[in-house]
Amino acid sequence: MGVRYGNLGIATAANPRIETGGLCGESKASILDMAGKYASESIARYAVFPSGLHALRTVQCS
Hints:
Elements: H1 2-5, H2 28-33, H3 37-40, E1 47-48, E2 60-61
Antiparallel strand pairs: 1-2
């Protein structure tokens, strides 16, 4: 699509509030955290388990 329209970043415009438009590297938790009050009532509880160097320091639950 990007080649067709002359812009390789065009795919990221589909979801402007999501980092990189949801193309890669987005956090599912950050997307779920954007849900409004009404939508949040329909989202199951979830936990975030950090990875990398700081993985053993903190665990966030929502």
